[in-house]
User: Fold this.
Amino acid sequence: TGRCVVAVDGPSGSGKSTVSRRLADALGARYLDTGAMYRAVTWAVLRSGVDLDNAESVTKVAGEVDLKIGVDPAAPSVTADGIAVDRDIRGPEVTAAVSAVSAVPAVREILVALQRQIIEAAGRIVVEGRDIGSVVAPDADLKVYLTASAEARAQRRSTENAADLAATAADLARRDRLDSTRAADPLRQAPDAVVLDTTELGIDEVVSRLRELLTGRR
Ligand code: C5P
Assistant:
């Protein structure tokens, strides 16, 4: 049980969170949801009332907020300035603003540094996000890129959030576009990532496929 870092990237609704948590659990590893970190900073930005378009003010909030990230795959948690924000960061206000906040390069620098510290301290960890295999942990033991059809992703998210399907599909399309076209560390498939399309594959199949890949590699 030495060091083992698994990077899981992909767009929203591709199954990253479920797959990453299950895999971490199966490996007896920790789990880091980097999207929750961008969401928690966004929560702090909204709370502070600074202008979302003011990169300098947004960066200041990102640098000052005290984030605590729990990395237990059975109960991941996030606090910002001592407040449990697990529920609020999934709400529509944060979801609408997070792509703008995560596009600020200086915000990314702050969070990537924190993510690397958490990974280093954990040793064995499954990390999910958009830029994990490409930027945060380019030396990961396994890099996975999960995809699924736009329809399947919207369907999953709207079921999860009990939200309208058409509105969810529009929101996903908007975030995918912003996340993959931004200048700083866009959503990108690392050249050495294993690509899995989860449109037809069940969670169990994906997790066991990844476990096989890990065994093959060690
Ligand atoms: O994964 P989740 O949908 O919670 O991520 C929320 C947002 O955080 C994404 O839409 C993206 O803008 C940003 N993000 C990012 N880099 C990551 C993880 C998330 O830019 N590694």
In short: The chain has a mean pLDDT of 94. Residues 4-217 form a domain with the Rossmann fold fold (CATH 3.40.50.300). The first helix runs from residue 16 to 27. The chain has one domain: 4-217.
